[in-house]
Amino acid sequence: MTDRLEAAPLWLGACVGAQLLVVVLCVVMAVAWRERPLLLHAAATLMSALALQALLAHWPVQPRAVLLLVLALAGLQLLDLVSHAGGLRTRRRWLLGASAVALPVLAALSTFSAWFAAGGVLLWLVVVLLVLQRAWLQSQPWAWWLAPGLLALLAAAGSTLLEQPLAGMAEALELAVLLTLWTGCIYIGTSWRGRLYGETRARIQARNTIDPLTGLATPLVLAERVQAARHLTKRYGHPSVLMIVHIENLPAIAHEFGPETAEAAVLAAASRVREALLRDGDVAARLAHARIGVLAEGAAPGQAAATVATRILSAGLKEPLAAAPAEYLRFRIALGPVPVDEIPPKLLLHRLNARLDAELQARNERRIATLSQDEMLVRTDFSTL
Fold this sequence. Notes:
Strand order of the largest sheet: 2-3-1-4-5
Number of helices: 13
CATH class of the largest domain: Mainly Alpha
Radius of gyration: 32 Å
Low-confidence stretches: 381-385
Order of helices and strands: HHHHHHHHEHHEEHEHEH
Protein name: GGDEF domain-containing protein
Domain GGDEF: 197-369
Strand content: 5-15%
Largest sheet: 5 strands, mixed
CATH architecture of the largest domain: Up-down Bundle
Organism: Ramlibacter agri
Transmembrane segments: 6-31, 38-59, 65-82, 94-115, 121-137, 144-162, 168-189
Distance between the termini: 100 Å
Pfam family, one: GGDEF
Number of strands: 5
């Protein structure tokens, strides 16, 4: 028994060190993943370490009052954890009221009587059970870590009610072990949830920004970049060019070799357009089955026609298609400057598409059609060209 008491300070220090390590990990991962529940858990864990210090150093603050504040922070964190669960509006309000209002008030009153602390623990337990009853099935598999963690926190809070005055080393070690078990389990469950939801957000963001077939950007990204390029032009005179690349012989490839070969041709076209871009700031987006939009920043129309557009044409003729060795990619391009006027990018693309349609209908030999600033601003009838 004496040996255990002598080793108790070492185990107690290890528990406090583990809690502080969890605080650091929570803060780092919360910043990296933008997860507020991890920050709330860091605050709750730091508060639990203060409860241990209040117990061992005989601070005038009662440990049971600090632990009620731990319960309040744990309730707020649980509120964020189950924010995805449906049908919990009323119960979430109860959890918010208990955590943000009732428990802090009871923590202050618990310094006068332990009955207030008991009421706070009971209130927290009832509200948590009501919330988890509805959210449990919608929170798998990470919710399994919540059960042992919350039970350990409940036992830690209950121990402060049973022990009077709760000042022995053995009682402090028991409390430290329970709090360490709680913070570790909740950290694992919260991190698991953050990883799952982070991957979901990444997939949603990728779906909104990356074309699944070609790996190019989506029209939404291209429109946002056009708006940004317009601001650069307006503020610094930094010119940009918007162009549309049309795969002219794609219908012939599909007719002769089948739709699978045509799909392979689209992939090859996307890859060659991406490789032909000169700068990292340039962006290519798939607009339609046979058309790719390109934004070339820092280039005037003449320069873009001589560099970016010419490189794209050359990339199509560089080598035949792997699925059709006798066929090359024949591109036709329409380009124009990005005006400083607040014209929607969709309208600019529409005008470039109309010019391309007119060029295809007229069967012009030139492969690059350049629109002037006035043509990009004025609704031009390209069918007469």
